[in-house]
Each structure stands twice: as C-alpha cells, then as structure tokens.
Design a protein that fits this description.
Blueprint (H helix, E strand, L loop, with lengths): L4 E3 L1 E3 L2 E3 L6 E6 L4 E7 L3 H20 L2 H17 L1 H12 L3 H18 L2 H4 L4 E6 L2 E9 L2 E5 L7 H12 L3 E5 L6 H12 L7 E3 L4 H9 L3 E7 L2 H13 L3 E5 L5 E4 L5 H13 L11 E4 L4 H14 L19 H16 L3 E4 L18 E4 L6 H4 L6 E4 L5 H10 L2 E2 L1 E5 L3 H10 L4 E4 L15 E2 L2 E2 L6 H7 L1 E9 L3 H5 L9
Parallel strand pairs: 1-5, 8-9, 8-11, 9-10, 11-12, 13-14, 13-19, 14-17, 16-17, 19-20
Antiparallel strand pairs: 2-3, 4-5, 6-7, 7-23, 12-22, 15-16, 18-21
Bound molecules: nicotinamide-adenine-dinucleotide.
The site of nicotinamide-adenine-dinucleotide has 26 residues, from helix 8.
Length: 501
C-alpha cells in the first residue's frame, strides 16, 4: 500500500487545505491503488480565490512587460532545474513513461519561452496623421482574472500553454487542473512564485463540476480557456459565453494518417507505432486511424506493422525500457476495452487484441496491450468516436480523395497527417482538408509554440487558438486611442470625423 498524500489548493502564494470536505482520489495507475487525496473546491472556495486574484492583478498588470518577462525567464530556468522531479511526479499520477513526461514539460516550456518575448508581442500599432493633427494608436491590455481548465493527459504542457501567455499579458490566473493528476500544476505554481510572481496572481484551485460551474458563473472571471473532451468543451463554451465571457474550448479528436502508395513504408511504420501507441494513445494529437490508399498499400503496411506492434510491451511508468505505461484510470481502461469489443461487434477485423494484458507484479495496474483493427468502415461507431487508448484502426481507401474525405467529414478535426513523396499531392491535401492541424510526413503535427494550436469542428469551440499570437490576442483586449493635438492652422479647422469632404 502506497502512503497517501493530501493535495491542497495553492492560493495567494501558499498551500490552502480544502474546506469543502469533498475530496477526489488520485490513483497510481501502475498499481491501481489510491496514492493521494485531492481537495475539491466548493463555489465559495473558488470565489475566495477569485477575490484574491482580483486584488493582486492590477499591480501585476502595472508591472512593466520587461519585468514580467524576467519572471518568465526565471521560471523557465527553475522548471529546467526541476525537470527530473516534475517528470517523475507527472508519471506517477498520469502513468505515462518518464521520457514522455519530460516531453510534456518541455513542450509547455516552449510556450514559456514564447511568453518571454511579451514586451515585443504587446506592442501596439500607430498611425501618424490620420487626420489634421490626429494620430491613432492601439494597445493590448490584460482582461483581469482569467480561468484555465485543463485535462488529465498533459498536466504540465496544457496549463503552461494557458498560464504562460495569460500571466505574461498581465492577467491573474485561476488554474483548475484535472483532478486525476493535480500535483504537477501545483508544483508549477510554486516554481512561478519562486521565480518572483507576486502572491495571488497565480492560483491553483482543484475541483470537479462544482468548481467548473462556479468559474463559468463568476462575474469577475473574464475569460475561460478550456481543454478536455468535446461534450464538456461544448458545455463550458455555451455556459461561459452565455455569461458574457470570452471562451476558447478545445475538445476531443480522432486524427487520420493517410498513407499514399509512394510513402516510405518503414518511416510510416515507425511513425505510426509512436503516434498511435505512445503515451497509451492518450494524446489529442495521437494518430489512431491509418488510411492506406490504393490497392496493396494496406497489406504492405500490415505486414511491416504487425511485428513492430507485437514488440510493444507496456510497462510501469517508472520503467526506463517501457514504451508506454498504463492508462489513467480503471474507468478509462474499461471504456477503451469496451470500444475494442464494439469494433469486434461491428464487424471490423481485430488483428491484435490488447485486452486482458497483465503486467507481472502490477496485476491491478490499468494496463492495456496494443490493439490493431483492419477493415474498419466509416459507419462504425467505434470509428466515429474517440477511443483515447492504444488502439489503431485501419480504414482502407481507394483514392486520395476518399481518404481526404474521411478526415474532412469526421466529427473531429484536430489533426491529420499525410505520408507521401509526392509534394503536389501533399500540398493539395494540406490546402483542402477540413482539419485544423496538418502534418506532411509528420505524424503528430503539434505546431511549435510561436505558431498556434487548435482544431476544427468538434475539436474546438470558439474562434481562437492556444499560444502563438492567437494566445496573446485571447488573453488581452485591444484599446484604440484617437488623439488630437491641434496647433497652428490645423487648430482652426473644424473637427469632423468621419467627413464627407
Ligand atoms: P474531461 O473533459 O473529462 O476533463 C477536462 C476538464 O473538465 C477537467 O478539468 C475536468 O475536471 C473538467 N470536467 C470533467 N467533467 C466535467 C463536467 N461534467 N462539468 C464540468 N467540468 C468537467 O477530459 P479528460 O478526460 O481530462 O481529457 C481527455 C480529453 O481531452 C480527450 O477527449 C482529449 O482528446 C481532449 N484533449 C484535447 C486537446 C485539444 O487541444 N483539442 C488536448 C488534450 C486533450
């Protein structure tokens, strides 16, 4: 039995034990045992944290952007210093292997690096002489208190996408991380404080629906950035915007990898293995659908793919040789396994069945072996829905147009990839496909931090993306000043804008 810890909120620069009397259980996915108890906030606790954030925000907003950037630089250095500790903590609660956890932290840090450039990013525009003696300039100002609500699958990267940009812009932040793996977000807040962020500017409030609803209804929270599953994303978007908030809500995914007959099949196999099964398939940019195009391509693919998948034995998240670890919870393991059964019932060919996998010494862990389906068709529910586990589905297509139509017509539109040596075909595909992020011979096309992340259709509600300049735009409001300093002849002219003359 693992010793249990208590995970508290982090408010006003210090740990704040929950007062609601409600707790969530944090599991060790390797063993299936409860390892910690996390406080779940009431609406009152959430409101208390907002009050603190609201009081702290004006001074932070008034701190010049260069000084705010210095806090980001310091934070980056501290996270790098604590990389091993953060990665171990992340693996212990999420279940992904330590190398993947380091990737999770690193990809978030890249957004912090982007946020270090905030003085440049906040520069406005200026027009001299828009009229006689008239100049016009614009500035970007912070919104006030914003909330970030994040999923379990990237407990370091996704919070950093949001708080990195939001804080640099001069906002105060309430982060409501996933209650399944809440420790890393708290450590990040502690490190931010160590980096010099004033108390109260960044607060972590744990919770479930009660805390989320309190965020969505609180009038002092001006914007909500959400990432999670689509139904909840839609709910957050609808309720938040109905309350007059700015909301961006990223949802689920079902990304397709289109494999053209001219693709380098060895590269495709390596990429598919990593992107379909890595992190146990619990990535919104995973590639769980392979679409081989043309006669013979699917058979060639399967011949090379099967032996590689058979080598993929999951292991404990602490095992340096494990390719991937357990999934996050017992309920999630059962859900993934039920989708495998659904695929069988719907008539797809199950070439490899990962159900019933037991890791010696970790028999109660939430492990699932790799599964592979062939002859999956678009009418199957197991194809239409997100499985979010180590399951790859092959859907055969005759022509590139058919493959592109599969991705374009799917309810989700997060990412898609094409594997080919034909530049023209790739270019046409990238231009026409109805999906937000496209990879050309890149299986997981997560854009770099200074570009922007966001899907289409039911993968994102709202009209702005995460990080890059889109992030700055989301976390600021623009003000435009028209100023007139009349002098000389100009002073005698009537001031009429707009004018017909
Ligand atoms: P989830 O929707 O269960 O939870 C996300 C957040 O919503 C959590 O903070 C959770 O506490 C909260 N929440 C859960 N149920 C709620 C309810 N009924 N009312 C209000 N709030 C609620 O998602 P998850 O299981 O933590 O994460 C996996 C999902 O996130 C997958 O669907 C994955 O595709 C998606 N995801 C999307 C992206 C993206 O950028 N599009 C990135 C990562 C993950």
């Amino acid at each position: 039995m693992t010793a249990q810890r208590d995970i508290h909120h982090f408010v006003n620069g210090k740990a704040s034990p929950g007062a609601s009397g409600r707790f969530g259980e944090v599991f060790d996915p390797n063993t299936g045992e409860v390892q910690a108890k996390v406080s779940l906030a009431s609406a009152k606790e959430l409101a208390d944290a907002v009050e603190i954030a609201k009081a702290a925000q004006p001074a932070w907003a008034a701190t010049n952007p260069q000084r705010r950037a210095r806090v980001m630089f310091k934070f980056k250095a501290l996270v790098e210093e604590h990389m091993d500790e953060l990665a171990r903590l992340l693996s212990a609660e999420h279940g992904k292997v330590v190398a993947d956890s380091k990737g999770d932290v690193q990809r978030g840090l890249e957004v912090i690096e982007f946020a270090c450039g905030i003085p440049h990013l906040l520069k406005g525009e200026y027009t001299e002489g828009a009229g006689p003696g008239i100049d016009v300039y614009s500035m970007r100002q912070p919104l006030g208190v914003i909330a970030a609500i994040t999923p379990f699958n990237f407990p370091a990267m996704i919070p950093m996408w949001m708080f990195g940009v939001a804080l640099a812009c001069g906002n105060a932040v309430i982060l409501k991380p996933s209650e399944k793996d809440p420790s890393v977000p708290v450590r990040l807040a502690e490190l931010m404080q160590q980096a010099g962020l004033p108390d109260g500017v960044f607060n972590v409030v744990h919770g479930d629906k009660e805390a989320v609803d309190a965020i969505l209804d609180h009038e002092d929270i001006k914007a909500v950035s959400f990432v999670g599953s689509s139904d909840i994303a839609h709910y957050v978007y609808s309720r938040g915007t109905a309350n007059g908030k700015r909301v961006q809500a990223m949802g689920g995914a079902k990304n397709h990898g289109v494999i053209m007959p001219d693709a380098d099949m060895d590269q495709v196999v390596r990429d598919l293995v990593g992107s379909a099964y890595g992190s146990a398939g619990e990535r919104c940019m995973a590639l769980p659908v392979a679409v081989p195009v043309g006669e013979g391509t699917a058979d060639k693919l399967i011949e090379k793919l099967m032996p590689e998948i058979e080598k993929l034995v999951p292991g404990a998240s602490t095992d340096p040789d494990a390719i991937y670890g357990p999934v996050v919870s017992k309920a999630h393991k059962e859900k993934v396994e039920s989708y495998i059964q659904m695929g069988v019932d719907e008539g797809a060919d199950l070439l490899l069945d990962g159900r019933g996998f037991k890791l010696q010494g970790h028999e109660n862990g939430f492990f699932i072996g790799p599964s592979l389906f062939d002859n999956v068709t678009p009418d199957m529910t197991s194809y239409q829905e997100e499985i979010f586990g180590p399951v790859l589905q092959i859907v055969r297509a005759d022509e590139l147009e058919d493959a592109a139509a599969l991705a374009s017509n799917h309810q989700y539109g997060n990412g898609v990839a094409i594997f080919t040596r034909n530049g023209l075909a790739a270019r046409e595909f990238a231009s026409k496909v109805n999906v937000g992020m496209v990879g050309v011979n890149v299986p997981i096309p997560v854009p770099v931090a200074y570009h922007t992340f966001g899907g289409w259709k039911r993968s994102a509600f709202g009209d702005s993306n995460q990080h890059g300049f889109e992030g700055v735009r989301f976390f600021t409001k623009i003000k435009t000043v028209t100023q007139r300093w009349p002098s000389g002849e100009v002073a005698d002219q009537a001031f009429i804008i707009p004018t017909m003359q």
